């Protein structure tokens, strides 16, 4: 299969290298694109050679120049490696930070011609982004969407090579924004990860509004401490990065962030909550038999009636945050909220329909203790069998808490492999099992904890154990179409495997 190229405007307009980097010794060299992946170089590109964990990007500079790169942006170490190349070499102390501004200039600073909405938080970024997209479309806008699941324009997927999971690197991001603008977008909803803030991926963008969903333990393998992780999130809510902050204050970190924004006075603040005391909160919640909810929101603009199609209290919180963000950018709320009834998010509380004589099966991306607890609490009232694990080469300290959260919310916990990556799968499962069993022994409800082995076997076991009135929650991978084991990504879709295994258990073909 051919790897899709990066999304870029179809007709690039070269700009002089000297306008990007005054003082360069070859200011008249024309630059029409930018990339940090030598495999994606197009003629006229500025190739960005960054230092990496295992090698320096400048080692690929020759290949980039052979592919048509007009110039190389790098640091002193990279310049030594790129010496003698028939291309201009620009040397800066921090090429990662420099490339964000350069990318914005090369592609015409597209964010300045779009309404930009950012969403961050430990959980709920993708769901809130999809709710915003649905609401903007219902209000007559033409939104772009950038996030974990992919790129979309006005509800249609855009196929592209990707450099990161959630927020693209700045060259890809700026090119994507320009492509969306030329495709007719008037607004863009972006998931902005903590990694993106620390690594400067969203530099050179000032968002019209940024929303904060919640905060919990995650990504400590990258940030080191919970405090550093929080500070990365909080950086998005400074005057250099956003004009308006919408902050959910249902957890302590949300309240801390709101207090900080309020004290700074440079960014407008709107608060949201599931309880009174915030600017936006639900005054009445009426759950419906199909899993949807009818809501009456109290807002500074008056009460607002809406229907939310997604189940779960945490999705109500996401919806309230989305509505407050829409209000912050002056969207017609009466029209916008009509889009929330039918909004769907792949791999987020996604129901896999197996027919009338089957258990209810839910697939969700929940992969933190907080998210696991939230999903299972939304399924309370029915016997629940949960299938989950923890990722390899990531924060090892959250593995036990993930198991513990599962044991608190389910009758049967089946521990399996998530994405083991380069770690031994059984060793990861052992840590999750330990956390689940520690909680299970302290409960009187008789929680059963099982080692389900590989993911397909665990899903099969869950379906075998489930009765027609039970619910099976398969957590951790959600929308993902692959599973990384020993450094190789194998095709694997939780929803597809559920259907295959159910067919086999009922005498059909896989």
Automatic annotation (TrEMBL):
Ranges where the record places region Disordered: 1-24
Location (main, coarse): cytoplasm
Record-listed ATP binding positions: 121-127
EC number in record: 6.3.2.13
Record domain Mur ligase central: where: 119-325
Annotated motif Meso-diaminopimelate recognition motif, positions: 418-421
Modified residues (N6-carboxylysine): 233
Binding site for meso-2,6-diaminopimelate: 394, 418-421, 476, 480
PTM per Swiss-Prot/TrEMBL: Carboxylation is probably crucial for Mg(2+) binding and, consequently, for the gamma-phosphate positioning of ATP.
Keyword Oxidoreductase applies: no
Keywords associated with the record: ATP-binding, Cell cycle, Cell division, Cell shape, Cell wall biogenesis/degradation, Cytoplasm, Ligase, Magnesium, Nucleotide-binding, Peptidoglycan synthesis
Gene3D superfamilies, alphabetized: Mur ligase, C-terminal domain, Mur-like, catalytic domain, MurE/MurF, N-terminal domain
InterPro entries per UniProt: Mur-like_cat_sf, Mur_ligase_C, Mur_ligase_C_dom_sf, Mur_ligase_cen, Mur_ligase_N, MurE/MurF_N, UDP-N-AcMur-Glu-dNH2Pim_ligase
GO molecular function: UDP-N-acetylmuramoylalanyl-D-glutamate-2,6-diaminopimelate ligase activity
Functional description taken from the UniProt entry: Catalyzes the addition of meso-diaminopimelic acid to the nucleotide precursor UDP-N-acetylmuramoyl-L-alanyl-D-glutamate (UMAG) in the biosynthesis of bacterial cell-wall peptidoglycan.
HAMAP family assigned to the protein according to its UniProt record, in alphabetical order: MurE
Homology family: Belongs to the MurCDEF family. MurE subfamily.
Name the UniProt record assigns to this protein: UDP-N-acetylmuramoyl-L-alanyl-D-glutamate--2,6-diaminopimelate ligase
């Amino acid at each position: 299969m051919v790897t899709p190229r990066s999304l870029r405007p179809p007709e690039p307009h070269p700009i002089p290298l000297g306008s990007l980097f005054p003082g360069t010794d070859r200011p008249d060299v024309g630059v029409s694109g930018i990339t940090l992946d030598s495999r994606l170089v197009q003629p006229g590109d500025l190739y960005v050679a960054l230092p990496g964990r295992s090698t320096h990007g400048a080692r690929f500079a020759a290949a980039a120049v052979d592919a048509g790169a007009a110039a190389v942006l790098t640091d002193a170490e990279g310049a030594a490696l790129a010496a003698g190349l028939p291309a201009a070499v620009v040397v800066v102390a921090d090429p990662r930070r420099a490339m964000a501004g350069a990318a914005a200039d090369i592609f015409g600073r597209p964010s300045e011609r779009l309404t930009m909405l950012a969403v961050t938080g430990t959980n709920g970024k993708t769901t809130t982004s999809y709710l915003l997209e649905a609401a903007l479309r219902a209000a007559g806008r033409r939104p772009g969407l950038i996030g974990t699941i992919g790129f979309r324009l006005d509800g249609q997927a855009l196929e592209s090579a990707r450099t990161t999971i959630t927020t693209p690197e700045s060259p890809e991001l700026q090119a994507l924004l320009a492509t969306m603008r030329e495709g007719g977008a008037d607004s863009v909803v972006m998931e902005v990860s903590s990694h993106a803030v620390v690594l400067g991926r969203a530099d050179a963008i000032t968002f019209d509004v940024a929303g904060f969903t919640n905060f919990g333990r995650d990504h400590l393998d990258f940030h080191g401490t919970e405090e550093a992780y929080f500070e990365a999130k909080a950086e998005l809510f400074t005057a250099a990065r956003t004009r308006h902050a919408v902050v959910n204050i249902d957890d302590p970190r949300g309240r801390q962030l709101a207090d900080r924004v309020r004290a700074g006075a440079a960014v407008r603040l709107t608060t949201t909550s599931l309880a009174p005391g915030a600017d936006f909160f639900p005054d009445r919640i009426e759950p419906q038999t199909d899993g949807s909810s009818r809501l009456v929101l109290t807002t500074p603009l008056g009460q607002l009636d809406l229907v939310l199609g997604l189940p779960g209290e945490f999705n109500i919180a996401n919806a309230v945050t989305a509505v407050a963000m829409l209000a912050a950018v002056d969207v017609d709320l009466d029209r916008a909220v009509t889009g929330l009834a039918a909004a769907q998010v792949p791999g987020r509380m996604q129901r896999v329909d197996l027919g009338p004589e089957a258990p209810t099966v839910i697939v969700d991306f929940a992969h933190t203790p907080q998210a696991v607890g939230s999903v299972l609490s939304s399924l309370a009232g029915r016997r629940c069998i949960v299938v989950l694990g923890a990722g390899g080469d990531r924060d090892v300290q959250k593995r036990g808490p993930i198991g513990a959260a599962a044991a608190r919310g389910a009758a049967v916990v089946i521990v399996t492999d998530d994405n083991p990556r380069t770690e031994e799968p059984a060793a990861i499962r052992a840590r999750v099992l330990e956390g689940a069993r520690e909680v299970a022994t302290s409960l009187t409800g008789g929680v059963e904890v099982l080692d389900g082995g590989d993911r397909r076997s665990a899903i099969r076991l869950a379906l075998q154990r489930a009765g027609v009135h039970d619910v099976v929650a398969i957590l951790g991978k959600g929308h993902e179409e692959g599973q990384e084991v020993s450094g190789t990504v194998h095709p694997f879709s939780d929803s597809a495997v559920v259907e295959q295994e159910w067919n086999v258990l009922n005498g059909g073909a896989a």
